[in-house]
Amino acid sequence: MILAELVTLSRQDAAGLVAQLTHQLRVLISSGRIRSGAVLPSSRQLAAELDVSRNTVTHAYEQLAAEGYLRAAERRRPVVAGDIEQRFAKAAPAPKREAARNPLLSPWALRLKDVDWPLSYQAGFRPLRPGLADAREFPHEIWARCLRRVALRRRFNEQTVINRPSLREALRGYLEVNRGVHAEADQILILPTAQAALTLIAAAAIVPGEVVWTEDPGYPGAAAAFRAAGAEVVGVKLDEWGMTRGREARAPKLIFATPSHQHPTGRVMPIARRTELLAAAAPGKSWIVEDDYDGEFHYDSRPMPALQGLDREGRVLYVGTFAKAMTADIRLGYLVVPPALARTMEIAQRHLGLIASVHVQEALSDFMTDGHFLAHIRRMRRVYRSRRDHLAAALVRHLGDVLVAEIPPGGMQLIARFTNGAMDSDAATRLVAAGVEVRALSSLALERPRDHGLLLGFAAWRENEIGAAVRIMANVLTAKRAARG
Questions:
Q1: Is the pTM for the entire model greater than 0.85?
Q2: Separation of alpha carbons 36 and 347, rounded Å
Q3: 3-state secondary structure at position 346
């Protein structure tokens, strides 16, 4: 065998001669073309045969020796390692395509294909997609100044503090005055999202097999987080005041609720029902997770204080987000935990890597301290209320004999139900295909759907966009009815 005949080098190849030679020799050895025990030419001889420098061959031989392909000794020609056939024995045949499509995953991961959350069809940004703030109305220039100011003064020796004290204190003051939340600053964890807060709670509080109550219909992300931790999630039905007290035999480890604005119906839980809900959670044994996802936006009266503010036994974990109050790309949420859990939850936060950008935290602290946050909230309350009323009026004008809207006292979306009690899934599919992003209320059910209607967002959409979307809805829904007639 003349080794030089098996090697082809190109001086135009960007990889270089050493890399080319090393790679080609490696392939020849691993494929069996050069067998174990074979003695290779000296570096001087192979260099002459390939018309390259001796250093090129020497470097290639040294690299292959370091990788275990060759045995090299001073003043001796290199020898291919003796165990090369065993090391490069033929691998098992590749799995069939069918097997590759069914990888070994956890039961939770395998169930994800059956969960429509996040919403599979919501790839674009179209009216009347629910649950969104209007980023176009956000004071981006002020926010940019806050970010720049923080970047210039950053003290990099403080990066180990993952929950910035300045933001904790600013948020504590805001929540106490505006949401009735009672907590010390060190009870507040700053997280990348509200969903991250639910993931943290689930990891720290749930033992697999324990029961969790959630609203039905309700927020799918909560059920997803709790099921991921191995919980048995039980849907608790709603009445006109929101979540009812469950009558199940097994007491829950967690109760998840959205009492300020029930998701998705927008119903507000009165004080008597809140007291009843607190009584369902035994101190030290059960926890209530209060998700106040859009509690800043009340239009017809002052907002009711948070459930957390009524708790005197340390049973409530309070979840909030800046995605609704500001803009979704802020990527900041927060979790207020009872004093007994504060240290443990912060350690768990670090272990799970649920850490928000320090830079953004400090910029947000400035944004709040300088009064920009409250000013933005006050302005958007007026804007969103006007848009809610505009959507309600447009539905009456164009679809009054088809849909009846439930006007929520706050929030960012409303429900419209069919006057004839029709199912919602077919209508939602046709509206999405026509370019109007709606959500079927029945798709948010945990168990068998009890409720039907269309979930329509108004906060992110200007009045002309709302009007155009409702006209499309009228064309789609009335055409269907006319065809049936």
A1: no
A2: 54
A3: helix
